[in-house]
Amino acid sequence: LTFFNLPKPNFFSLCNLIFKYFQGHDTSASALTFILYNIAKHPEIQQRMYDEIVEVVGPDYTELTLHTLNELRFLDLVIKESLRMFPPVPMIARHATERTEIEGSVIPVGTIVGVDIFEMHRDSDYFEDAERFNPDRFEAVREAGKSNP
């Protein structure tokens, strides 16, 4: 830091910087790990992905462009399904900023409200056969022109 003539950071600034680094790194690493896990666990999915890549990119893999990436539709479905089953951020918490009533239950101001994304993504009310890795479930969403189920 002295090379740039910047003041020496205090302990809290340094901790915050380190936390931000790992916060972004951990979620990306987790997402990629589970995508690879799901591909490895399902050889039929792996084969479909390979076939799509060869068809879209070509057998010699000469050039990969943004247009080419957008054509990899099944790859997109695999990523979405993997993120559904193993969200990199499985739970979030928020502070209620105003008194809210939901189905007769009151949430007072200042209450910490937790949202369990992991369980929501495995709820059979929203996802048929929710425990099964099925990238094709997102094809209907794509065809309907929606971004989320």
TrEMBL record:
SUPFAM superfamilies: Cytochrome P450 (SSF48264). InterPro entries: Cyt_P450, Cyt_P450_E_grp-I, Cyt_P450_sf, Cytochrome_P450_Monoox. The keyword Oxidoreductase applies. Its cofactor is heme. Keywords: Heme, Iron, Metal-binding, Monooxygenase, Oxidoreductase. Transmembrane segments: none annotated. The keyword Heme applies. One of its GO terms (molecular function) is monooxygenase activity. Pfam families: p450. Belongs to the cytochrome P450 family. This is Cytochrome P450 4d2. It comes from Culex pipiens (House mosquito).
